Amino acid sequence: VQLQASGEALVQAGGSLRLSCHASGNIFSVNDMGWYRQAPGNERDMVATIGRGSTTTYTDSVKGRFTITRDNAKNTAYLQMNSLKPEDTAVYYCHALVWTMGPGGVFRPETYWGQGTLVTVSS
């Protein structure tokens, strides 16, 4: 299973950007998807997640500015980021909980991460 995330971007404060994350490979079902971010010197923190039924969660600092959606048929999630601030600058990591079928027809859940997307918001 691979997670393919959109490329890095540089935007001005107040601008918008949409990230995408596509899961491909030996997939039976994709459950939760989302993004985490890590700024220099900080830990990796949750930004937004979305369940297969489209239940969403957001960290407080992005509520009202970021919107996460998904297309289950395409195994793809999107993060629409509006009103970007310099403090949103970070490497954004796509995350997915994927059910795959292994040897003997056994299904099992595994967590996957994308390669990371650098988002830079200039003031």
Distance between the termini: 37 Å
Write down the overall mean pLDDT. 95
Number of strands: 11
Structural class estimated from helices and strands: mainly beta
Give an overview of the whole structure.
There is one protein chain. This protein is mainly β. The protein contains no helices and 11 strands. Strands 2, 4, 5, 6, 9, 10 and 11 form a 7-stranded mixed β-sheet that branches. Strands 1-3-8-7 form a 4-stranded antiparallel β-sheet, with no helix packed on it. Strand 5 (45-50) and strand 6 form a beta hairpin. The chain is elongated and about 55 Å long.
Provide tags for this entry.
seven-stranded mixed beta sheet; 0% helix; 123 residues; four-stranded antiparallel beta sheet; mainly beta
Quick recap:
The chain has 123 residues and is mostly beta strands. It is built from no helices and eleven strands.
Note the topology:
Layout: E1 2-5, E2 9-12, E3 17-24, E4 29-38, E5 45-50, E6 56-58, E7 66-71, E8 76-81, E9 90-101, E10 107-113, E11 117-122
Parallel strand pairs: 2-11
Antiparallel strand pairs: 1-3, 3-8, 4-5, 4-9, 5-6, 7-8, 9-10, 9-11
